[in-house]
Design brief:
Elements (H helix, E strand, L loop, with lengths): L1 H17 L29 E5 L4 E8 L2 E7 L2 H4 L3 H4 L5 H10 L1 E8 H5 L5 E2 L13 H10 L2 E4 L7 H10 L5 H15 L2 H17 L3 H17 L1
Antiparallel strand pairs: 1-2, 1-5, 2-3, 3-4, 4-6
GO cellular component, one term: rough endoplasmic reticulum
Pfam families: LRAT (PF04970)
Protein name: Lecithin retinol acyltransferase a
Length: 228
């Protein structure tokens, strides 16, 4: 039992310490440069902007005139054609429903609405990506061509894929990579087999012997065992 508790604590610590969806293209030994004194220079058209959020990082391309193009999930375009309503600031409810429906838009918002009160990092990926960034004007034009509705996937077509495609020519997401690495470490840990097996037995005790409880109790631990 102590071993199982240790396993659960380790995995919870891993998720919280890694900040699973936070994007970081730096190697473990690299550090962010010290903050510059005074206000940062204003972004230029075509700059790649990052906004750290609670559990993930949001990305956009600066278009100039205080405007930012960014990919964000939104359910409202599926429900209405009212452009004024769609252009309003996206609420958390709209965003979550957009994720579930896999519907997003590349839209243009003000720099303030994009930042949502957070600090903005400019072109941080340029030092970390292997590909050289396109000229800023080309980046902005590539972003403008993408404006409109677009299929969404939390792992395979998110805001980070959008900006890396616009600035470097190929879509990539470090946030997705970190999630997959963490998931792989959990699957490869053989204690996952014990945990899922115990949970399956508890479900059978609580809900009775049925196909809906018995089959997962057998198949999930077996799959994790074979994948580990």
């Amino acid at each position: 039992m102590l071993q199982l508790l240790t396993f659960l604590v380790e995995k919870l610590s891993l998720l919280s310490s890694l900040k699973l969806f936070e994007s970081s293209w730096l190697d473990g030994e690299d550090q962010e440069p010290p903050a510059q004194r005074g206000p940062p220079p204003p972004p230029r058209r075509g700059d790649l902007l990052e906004v750290p959020r609670t559990i993930f990082t949001h990305f956009g391309i600066y278009l100039g005139d205080n405007k930012v193009a960014h990919l964000i999930p939104d359910i409202l375009p599926v429900l209405t054609n009212d452009k004024k309503l769609i252009s309003s600031v996206i609420t958390n409810k709209r965003l979550i429903l957009g994720c579930l429906y896999k519907c997003a838009t590349v839209r243009v918002d003000t720099l303030e609405d994009f930042a949502y009160g957070s600090n903005i990092l400019v072109n941080r990926m340029d030092k970390m990506m292997k590909a050289q960034a396109f000229p800023n004007e080309d980046v902005a034009q590539r972003a403008e061509k993408q404006i409109g509705g677009i299929p969404y996937s939390l792992l395979w077509n998110n805001c980070e894929h959008f900006v890396t495609y616009c600035r470097y020519g190929h879509a990539a997401s470090r946030q997705t990579e970190k999630f997959c690495e963490c998931l792989k470490s959990i699957i490869r840990d053989q204690r996952s087999v014990i945990v899922t097996g115990l949970l399956g037995i508890i479900s059978m005790v609580c809900f009775g012997m049925a196909a809906s409880t018995t089959l997962p109790t057998i198949l999930i631990p077996f799959t994790l065992w074979m994948a580990g």
